[in-house]
Design a protein that fits this description.
The complex is a heterodimer of chains A (589) and B (114). Chain A is of the alpha+beta class and 589 residues long. Chain A has 19 helices and 13 strands. Chain B is α+β, with helices and mostly antiparallel strands. In chain B, the strands form 2 sheets. Chain B has a 3-stranded antiparallel sheet. In chain B, strands 1-3 form a two-stranded parallel sheet. Classes of the chains: A alpha+beta (589), B alpha+beta (114).
Chain lengths: 589, 114
């Protein structure tokens, strides 16, 4: 069969249906009239000739149907007819339709909202080059490390290393490259709380969230500047002028996206500096929980000491080996597992530890490296939230189930009223599969419309949700705008929902024997289906479960928020110098 | 069933249509008449079934269709064979004849020949 004629046939079927119909009708009419004339000529009466010709032809409608089928694109045409019919039916019952749409919009919308939050928090990667190749380093130790060997005071206990470790890894980079480690970077916030840097630009002071970064931070991450340049290792040389780069968001909000920012001088905590670049939009640092506005080279200037510590005069970054304050990341070549990274870097880490360590511990008791793949940056946010998110996702799934059974109940009661219509269709020759298709199409229209409404709801709700769960700052660094994954999730959900609540009424419509329903008068049609009672029980049960669970969750959230703020206030008041000891437990942050 | 008439096996209608049209372009009713003519009235074709068959053949590019005027000045759609149609007719006809010869031989064999 030639492709062109198949194409032509489909084209005709879709766009020239009317003409094809006329064509067919004319041919059949011509055929019948020719036969009739023949029969007339052979002596029958006109009425007889007519009847005879039709009898010989066979069922005109049946053959016309076959011709239409042979044109092709039948399913598509049927689908179009079903959709038009479904829309008409829904329009006839505006009240019922709105209730159904509301149920579905809430169910699908809630699911989409939670899923987009989960997507943003759990699944999105950093906007850097090859996020899969980034690994965050943690340390661990079999023996507890005494205070004189290690203090932190940062609250980020196990990701912070002494400055010596970073230096050592960088020194060994030539040797480590063939072993698979292609780059190392480190950064530290400019203060414990955020925002933490006083920025004075053109006489206007403001506070910004600053990060002190090593010279290769941006080159190892592979994040380019959208304007100007990023920070280079040359900016960390003693005597080099102090520079800074800012985030796109900060540029837009504080400097009104003015390109003249490049080269502008600002004052950072009293130190004069020059802004040399704006980082590509979307990048806000490696800690989703603490997005950064401005990046400053890590040089040890007293006014810009890591973690907002106030150093003694002559104190440098490297002069307190017991202070473990520097979160460190490495990049590895593709295919390397975190385990391999650990094996390569643990000896280097141990070499960087000072003498007191080797005096106190045997070689095998020294602390070691644990590497964690971190395409999304520091994972505190995920660890804290993943459990809660999963619970929420289960909760809204239940919500959707309740919504679906609600819709199914309503549709079932309506299906009973339409029994007569279905019976007539069955009796005039519609195949059962055709009727099932039509009822399912109606359900799909409902669920797609409900889904579209739900997505709109989710737009609005997911941002509010993110602020609620993560706090205002983190919410800004994560974007919950629906991306392809979220939208396809909603689509799949809509289809699933449509099938779920549509199958019941569809099967019921074709299950019945057509004739009793036709014989009965319209008033006698029974309104209750056998399924209604179990569905209602199902809904009540699920609703109870949801109510109780959400009540418990709500209480837990409230307690969590309260204790969080108490902890934060306690730590900030006691952090004054580099040697301040604040007990950090592994779970606090 | 009239004595001496043959019921049409499924699938053979299209072959008959191809054969009928091969003897000259025809409209729907004309195909019917011709089949009747060349089979000597022995083949019973359900008239309505003709049109789906014609449509299918056009879709498979074995027939071409054009509007024209019939003998009694009516507007009618005339069908004629394409080259592909001609080829298909040859192949199918040969196959049929082979089949029917073989069937005839098989069915005529008697107990003695075994």
């Amino acid at each position: 069969m030639k492709l062109s004629s198949w194409f032509h046939s489909i084209w005709q079927s879709l766009f020239h249906r009317a003409q094809a119909e006329d064509d067919l009708a004319e041919q059949v009419a011509a055929h019948l009239s020719e036969r009739t004339s023949e029969l007339l000529a052979s002596g029958l009466s006109p009425a007889e000739a007519n009847r005879q010709a039709r009898l010989e032809f066979g069922s005109v409608e049946k053959y016309k149907e076959e011709c239409r089928e042979s044109l092709g694109a039948r399913l598509l045409h049927d689908l179009g007819a079903d959709i038009r019919y479904g829309l008409r039916t829904l329009r006839h019952n505006p009240l019922l339709t709105s209730v159904l749409l509301l149920c579905l919009a809430l169910g699908i919308g809630a699911n989409t909202a939670i899923f987009s939050v989960a997507n943003a928090v759990l699944m999105k990667s950093l906007p850097i080059r090859d996020p899969q190749g980034l690994v965050s380093l943690h340390w661990d130790s079999k023996k507890r490390l005494p205070a004189e060997l290690r203090t932190s005071g940062t609250g980020y206990g196990d990701v912070c290393f002494p400055y010596q470790t970073y230096l050592k890894i960088r020194q060994e980079s030539q040797r480590l490259r063939p072993l698979g480690i292609t780059g190392v970077l480190a950064y530290a916030p400019a203060g414990f709380l955020s925002p933490n840097v006083k920025v004075v630009a053109q006489g206007h002071p403001s506070m910004a969230a600053g990060e002190l970064v090593t010279g290769d931070y941006f080159s190892v991450l592979g994040t380019p500047a959208s304007l100007g340049r990023t920070i280079f290792p040359s900016d960390l040389q003693p005597g080099a002028p102090l520079v800074a780069v800012i985030s796109h968001r900060y540029w837009q909000s504080t400097f009104a996206a003015n390109p003249a920012i490049i080269g502008a001088s600002v004052n950072l905590n009293g130190l004069p500096a020059i802004v040399v670049g704006v980082i590509r939009s979307g990048f806000l640092g490696l800690n989703a929980k603490a997005p950064a506005d401005i990046w400053i080279p890590l040089r040890g200037d007293a006014a810009l000491f890591p973690w907002g510590a106030t150093p003694d005069p002559n104190q440098t970054l490297a002069s307190a080996p017991a202070w473990w304050w520097l979160p460190t990341f490495v990049r590895h070549r593709p295919g390397m597992t975190p385990q391999q990274v650990e094996n390569v870097l643990t000896p280097v880490f141990r070499e960087s530890l000072t003498e007191p360590f080797s005096k106190r511990f045997k070689a095998e008791d020294l602390p070691f490296i644990k590497a964690e793949a971190s395409p999304g940056g520091l994972t505190f946010l995920r660890q804290n939230l993943s459990m809660q998110l999963y619970v929420l996702m289960a909760g809204v799934a239940l919500l959707l189930l309740i919504g679906c059974s609600n819709v199914a109940t309503l549709l079932l009661s309506r299906a009973a009223a339409r029994q007569r219509e279905m019976s007539v269709r069955l009796a005039t020759g519609a195949s059962r599969s055709r009727i099932v298709r039509q009822v399912l199409t109606e359900s799909m229209i409902l669920s797609f419309a409900g889904g579209a409404l739900g997505i709109l709801l989710a737009f609005w709700a997911s941002h509010a949700l993110l602020v609620l769960i993560c706090g205002r700052k983190a919410a800004l660094s994560l974007s919950v705008s629906p991306d392809a994954r979220v939208l396809s999730f909603s689509l799949a959900l809509a289809v699933l929902t449509g099938v779920l609540f549509g199958v019941g009424p569809a099967l019921k419509a074709v299950a019945a024997d057509p004739f009793p329903a036709i014989k009965e008068s319209a008033q006698n049609v029974s309104g209750k289906s056998r399924l209604t009672a179990p569905l209602v029980v199902f809904q009540i049960a699920l609703s109870l479960v949801l109510l109780i669970t959400s009540g418990l969750l709500f209480r837990r959230f409230a307690i969590c928020k309260h204790s969080r703020s108490v902890l934060r206030r306690g730590i900030s008041s006691s952090l004054l110098s580099t040697h301040a000891l604040t007990a950090t437990t592994r779970t606090a942050y | 069933m009239k004595p001496g008439s043959v019921d049409l096996l499924p699938g053979t209608l299209e072959l008959l249509v191809l054969k009928a049209v091969s003897l000259g372009p025809l409209h729907g009713y004309g195909v019917l008449l011709r089949i009747n003519q060349i089979s000597g009235g022995a083949l019973l074709v359900e008239q309505g079934a003709l049109y789906p068959a014609l449509f299918r053949l056009v879709r498979q590019s074995l027939l071409n269709a054009e509007w024209g005027t019939s003998d009694n000045n009516r507007r009618a759609k005339f069908y004629c064979l394409t080259t592909a149609g001609r080829k298909k007719l040859r192949e199918q006809a040969a196959g049929w004849l082979r089949l029917s010869d073989t069937m005839a031989t098989v069915l005529k064999s008697t107990a003695e020949e075994l």
